[in-house]
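User: For my dataset I need records formatted as: sequence, then structure tokens, nothing else. Please produce one.
Assistant:
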Amino acid sequence: MIAVYLPAIIIVTITFLISHQIVAINIGTVFGLLFQEPMIGICDRICFKRLKHHNLNH
């Protein structure tokens, strides 16, 4: 899941190193980075109960 946000993280890091300020990180990007994987796991357990999950509780 982190691969989706890797380009944004790299760009933000490079621009921060050059300008020493963070200007445009949207709330959706931060929310996605922090909660995307747990929310997918919760939705999978609720909506798709037949799926087999490995290490979901970690």
